[in-house]
Design a protein that fits this description.
22 strands; six-stranded antiparallel β-sheet; alpha+beta
Length: about 290
């Protein structure tokens, strides 16, 4: 990744290790005439990605027109402003952007395709569209015109600047005039987009969110690796094993067998006891008379 300076204040800097920017002598990017703090910001690459770090006391740090207080993750195409200094994050080399787009607009999406296609969106990263998302179930005209689907209220933008279209599993950026856009920091007119691509039109920035589409570098030839419609998932047939054996029933404890002889002895004893009690109750009062 590189740190570039669109207005030519400094030569491009490769983002390796920590790159400090400020007015202090010894900073990797030392620009005392830009009104920066001695240590205004730093850019650091680690295994998780590229980060913008803002030290305590630094002011006027913005990422895509949004203020940064302490820490922010960066991606190719991001615009960083340090007070009045503008910096753009770019890839080391021009990315392999396919500029061969379909001649005709896309066919209308069927109802069965609408739900999965609605997950492919443009999300605003700066300005009036920050945080807003726009689905691509229909082509989206971007420009200054009042009839634009994504209106960019900026005199520097053409009334009909570009259209973003969904062609099956390909997202296409189509220029409507002579003006170009930027994709990940590089100027383009027509382009096949990939998930995570950042599209910049003057000061307006959007990112393409399309989970499931192949990333840049995973596309082969003129069509991506994925050939089914965007976000569709084939039903997964899970083979079922043999039905489990029925649970074994616990044996019911059988009643103990009774000895018939013992039973008769018990009955006889009870009879004798009952007779003795009866005799006692009948003859005992007469004997005492």
């Amino acid at each position: 990744m590189q740190l570039t300076f669109p207005n030519g204040e400094h030569a491009s800097v490769t983002l390796q290790g920590e790159v400090t920017v400020g007015s202090r002598a010894g900073s990797r990017v030392c620009l005392p005439e830009q009104g920066l703090a001695p240590h205004h910001a730093s850019f650091q690459q680690d295994r998780r990605g590229l980060w913008l770090r803002v030290p305590a006391g630094a002011h006027g740090v913005h990422l895509n027109a949004r203020p940064v207080r302490r820490l922010a993750q960066l991606r190719a195409g991001d615009l960083v402003c340090l007070d009045k200094l503008r910096l753009v994050v770019r890839a080391d080399d021009l990315p392999e952007i396919d500029r061969r787009i379909p001649v005709s607009p896309p066919a209308a999406i069927t109802e069965s395709q609408r739900v999965p296609a609605s997950r492919v969106v443009l999300r605003g990263l700066s300005g009036q569209h920050f945080g807003r998302t726009y689905t691509l179930t229909e082509p989206r005209l971007m420009g200054r015109s009042a009839s634009a689907d994504i209106r960019l209220d900026d005199v520097a933008v053409a009334e009909r600047h570009a259209v973003v279209e969904l062609h099956g599993d390909r997202v296409v950026l189509r220029a409507m005039g002579s003006d170009s856009s930027q994709v990940n920091g590089f100027p383009v007119r027509d382009a096949v987009l990939a998930p995570g691509d950042q599209i910049a039109i003057d000061q307006h920035r959007f990112v393409l969110e399309a989970p499931g589409l192949p990333l840049r570098g995973q596309m082969g030839g003129q069509k991506p690796v994925v050939t089914t419609h965007t976000q569709t998932m084939n039903a997964v047939r899970v083979p079922l094993g043999n039905d489990p054996a029925p649970a074994r029933e616990e044996p019911v404890a059988s009643e103990p067998k009774r000895d018939p002889v013992a039973l008769w002895w018990l009955i006889a004893a009870a009879t004798v006891l009952a007779a003795a009690m009866t005799a006692l109750l009948i003859y005992a009062p007469r004997m005492g008379a």
